[in-house]
């Protein structure tokens, strides 16, 4: 499947066009393609398609468009619209979407050698077939269309510069003539056109064009041509604009050419995207519009590879800085000394620029003024490495737009960003980059000889380049030792930082981290220690507020300090994470955090319990003690909010239950399992439900509470049945029923008998299922609870349907459906509609069955009940097949297979594959 957005929106499957539906539906698809592989909320989809005038039921219309698009794309391998969080994402290989392919080709071109870059630019520009989304018109798409036009224009100009440098002026004249007419005030276009004319033997035409744009600039803007265009004019006028001339680069003006860069890194790998960003900034600086110095501030934790990145990029672009390179290590976080003063750095720069020591001014401001004077109008690279803060670097910023300034720091230099500096924060290496760096150092043979040890080494280094380099250095020092020995050292988390020490301060990870930690105030350092002990892969701002027992505003201030120091990362709005090795150091330096962790478990438990009550309002509630002091649960507005919160926090909730078990907080362990059960059923998370249920059973056994034991056995029995372990399921459910009957717990008995009914139906024991279901129905009627009675009616109806007791089954199911709707129990309504669909299918009334199934599917989708939705899709496929509509059956079955795979329901997925086969 290929998608075209750079022109009319189109899709092709094996070169055959695909019908994408009417314009609104194509707008929905286009929105998802622009943000390919990222979740777009339903509200964003509504805004992007209708802007400020959405129709009534806009969300329902979006759901309808998404459903039809899913059907359209169902057969395409590697393409799927999936729900995630509070929205949807289109999973697709971005190389198949021309917009993303264009951007990737341009990024590669800007970091490639000239010959390769020319080809890459031409491939990128060849993807355009008109204006982006030419057949669609919404305000949001209009804004993206304008941005894409700017990206295309920039690529065209970069391509023209390259082509001119390679003597392709003759073929460019016509194209540049049209571009100059379209952009009569663009000086870069004018300069390119003048060079193409001159090198084609048309010097007079080139000079006339200069006079033309000069007049336009004066009339329209009241300004004269800039320095770059003036330079091209003089070159054309004097006959110096030969094929080798670069129109936007002045000639050297001084014989003093400093070369202060340290040696280039020998084992550099990865960072292709970051190198491309720096190159893009340099290219932008070369444009005639650039009026200030280009400043890029590269940030990241100690050991992330900031200096290596700068040096690698600098050596790849030395030809762009013929007037020299200045470099200084400002020692902002040096473990062995104080930061360098701006005055000391300025004296080093002035010496490099040829100023005699005796001639240097004493005053720092005077030194800075002399420094800026000497670098003015010179094409120079200036590197300020390891800066402490903005105040340290401000006197060292040149004033000339011909200079490029690169700064590295462990802090985010927000003060520079305010003045226009580009901030580039480095993240850890991905798996490929990390393996590449270790492979460069150790060699392919050593890597291949011990793949398991290599995997352990990379996992323990967690993508941190310095950690990988230390491991490589230690391995190189003892090449006769197996890597497994080093891996065994690193696997022990309590001594891992000891293993990441190569014997020098700059190659000792603990010392590197310590120099960053020492800059923190007490409150910020305390929070970092608490975060180090917090379970789970990430944490939200509100959870941190409870962890630290501080108001959200105070937590935000402390987090900003940690984020500025690159000790935590805010990877999404309101969500933070910490590097594994920094976490180990934080734990080492932190004091006891039992109270803080108890508050955090309380935050997860109370928020989850409130959310569970909204998802399953008809279940009798449990008593949960008040939150501990300082713990403030997250407010959840509605069911969509609840599901989005559970999606975002699921891994943390599992980790919180594990933490509670480790501390012996068994009641919280059991209560977390309770609070997760409705969410797990909706999402079809069978394995996760089994994990938390087993933990709940262990906790109940520790507490010795019969009620807790009964509930835990009931949960575990239900989830084991859904997982196909029917004997185990019956054992747990029978134990639960015995406890509940002894306690005369009517609600628990009904629930347990319902679960037993499902197991007996699934295993074909229909007579026993009917007896059990009728017993549950009698209990429900005695209780007077209409929700329980409706559920029991549905279960009994399904059992009778299996025995072909058609009238009894229909009577029960229709009565159950009426009660479900009267009590507004959406889950029960969908289950009963599904039962009626099954009954009609068994009776051969396939159209009626399909109608019931489709109604059930709509309710399940609205409620986000993915587990049941997958089963209903499977049954819809069966009904389509019975009607002879094999194509529709295949679509439904493919959708069910994808959901089964997401839910780890391998057997169900395999059964459907056999049918499709």
Descriptive account of the structure:
The chain is an alpha/beta fold and 917 residues long. Among the domains are: 1-166, Arc Repressor Mutant, subunit A (Orthogonal Bundle), CATH 1.10.10.10; 272-425, Rossmann fold; 431-512, no CATH class; 520-592, Winged helix-like DNA-binding domain superfamily/Winged helix DNA-binding domain (Arc Repressor Mutant, subunit A), CATH 1.10.10.10. Helix content is 63%, strand content 6%. The chain has 42 helices and 14 strands. The strands form four sheets. A five-stranded parallel beta sheet has the order 8-9-10-7-11, with helices on both faces. Strand 1 and strand 2 form a beta hairpin. Helix 29 (639-662) packs antiparallel against helix 30 and helix 29 crosses helix 31. The chain starts with a strand and ends with a helix.
